[in-house]
Amino acid sequence: MPELPEVETTVRGVRPVVAGRQIRAVVVRERRLRWPVSRGLNRTLKGKHVTSVARRAKYILLNFSHGSVMIHLGMSGRLRVVPADTPLVKHDHVDFVLDSGKVLRFHDPRRFGSILWVSQDFTNSPLIKNLGPEPFDEALTGATLYRLSRGRKTRIKQFIMDGRIIVGVGNIYASEALFRAGIRPGRAAGRVTLPRFEQLLDAIRQVLSEAIKAGGTTLRDYSRVTGEPGYFEQSLDVYERAGSPCVNCAVLIRRKVIGQRASYYCPSCQN
What we know:
- This protein is α+β, with helices and mostly antiparallel strands.
- The chain folds into two domains: 4-124, N-terminal domain of MutM-like DNA repair proteins; 142-265, Orthogonal Bundle (Helicase, Ruva Protein, domain 3), CATH 1.10.8.50.
- The protein is 24% helix and 21% strand.
- It contains six helices and ten strands.
- The strands form three sheets. A four-stranded antiparallel β-sheet has the order 1-6-7-5. It has a four-stranded antiparallel β-sheet with strand order 2-3-4-8, covered by helices on one side. The chain has a two-stranded antiparallel ribbon with strand order 9-10.
- A hairpin with a 3-residue loop joins strand 6 (92-98) and strand 7.
């Protein structure tokens, strides 16, 4: 599943090509995604200009003067910018035809993604309004996470993956950040000290920044807007490395299921 670095990489690839362009047409070939594609998109957007392209959590936002298109990539979704005459392939579900002669094309084999129109401020959408802060929000501190964790028996990995606490820390990057911070993923969040939360937030930001710079992580379905893979997979220290020696101490990496998700950690470096 594309996580925050993959979504941010997509936004950065789409923005210079799409922002400021006029929508000539919206072609919907398949409405049956996670939620049905909003009806009337062609009528709503034809002739309108994209004022900006942004991201909130894992949502890609095509903003207009009268509302926003909220795009979620789901499990296998991908946005590509291609020439308008590019032949269609299976699972090319939606095209945003631009006045530049190019098309922003949404491709999603598993159909767990979504394309929704919101006519009001997107921050009031039920899908967004209850989300926590972005990882790079300057107002977010280790003390904030420490305060929210008090009394919680929830495991720390689940805690930082909770979008109501902090957005964008998906399974891959949670494992990597906890490794860098030296915290075992199964530890109760309420037992993590303030200094360790400060270390953990620094590690989350470092891991996400490096992943964005590398263009994301290609493990299964993800690739960039250009079709190229993301390269952060080459920098993973623990994720999907069970049975391999730790890069720090050579003890074998272990795998444990936490919250129905595979978690990877070093039993020596993390406690």
